[in-house]
Design goal:
heterodimer; A: 111 residues; mainly beta; 7-stranded mixed beta sheet; 50% strand; B: 116 residues; 6-stranded mixed beta sheet; 4-stranded antiparallel beta sheet; 0% helix; 53% strand; globular
Chain lengths: 111, 116
């Protein structure tokens, strides 16, 4: 069953803690992406990776970090430096330049 | 930088009404265009896409969109909506060349509510 999995679906953290969101894909896509979705703002790109061991900042990378050690995996760490981390986080993958396929998302709440 | 504007934040229709959702983008070069839909509680999924060729593209569930290059627009249409079309719709644009090739820029989204 091909697709993108994100875990967990809901995540709660205390302010000041780093938290890592998981994203795995079995679509054999080279490119992977992380977005943040806030009401009325659409999706905003945090980081993206075109190939293993390489990634670039998106439009709102401050306070986030990523790694891409395997083709299938692209975890996102929300650090304590992110000023407004409570949001819905979406992971996507694609063949580079083609349409993106999205995971179910992780809703992060930081209190 | 690319920007994408969706004209309406919330559209409310009755079943069988016609739908048109506006989308405009700023980049003047070659672009790839997409409409995505997010049904309540479901993944974001692709409705339709335009890369090249016929500017009138057809997607799933009876949706279509028209690319008008001179107007930097990619409006989504459906002749007769159903209650099951209730969802949030996102327009997205990717530059088809240059250093930002492949990166998607999304509009703010339009919530469509269809009353039975």
């Amino acid at each position: 069953d091909g697709g993108i999995t994100q875990s967990p679906k809901y995540l709660f953290r205390k302010e000041g803690q780093n938290v890592t969101l998981s994203c795995e894909q079995n679509l054999n896509h080279d490119a992977m992406y992380w977005y943040r979705q806030d009401p009325g703002q659409g999706l905003r790109l945090i980081y993206y990776s075109q190939i293993v061991n390489d990634f670039q900042k998106g439009d709102i990378a401050e306070g986030y970090s990523v790694s891409r050690e395997k083709k299938e995996s692209f975890p996102l760490t929300v650090t304590s430096a992110q000023k407004n981390p409570t949001a819905f986080y979406l992971c996507a993958s694609s063949r580079w330049g083609s349409e993106q396929y999205f995971g179910p998302g992780t809703r992060l709440t930081v209190t | 930088a690319q920007s994408v504007s969706q004209h309406n934040h919330h559209v409310i229709l009755s079943e069988a009404a016609s739908l048109e959702l506006g989308c405009n983008y700023s980049y003047g070069g070659t672009v790839n265009l997409f409409w995505y839909v997010q049904y309540p509680g479901q993944h974001l999924q692709l409705l339709l896409k335009y890369f090249s060729g016929d500017p009138l593209v057809k997607g799933i569930k009876g949706f279509e969109a028209e690319f008008i290059k001179s107007k930097f627009s990619f409006n989504l249409r459906k002749p007769s909506v159903q209650w099951s079309d209730t969802a949030e719709y996102f327009c997205a644009v990717a530059n088809a060349g240059g250093t930002s090739y492949g990166k998607l820029t999304f509009g703010q989204g339009t919530i469509l509510t269809v009353h039975p």
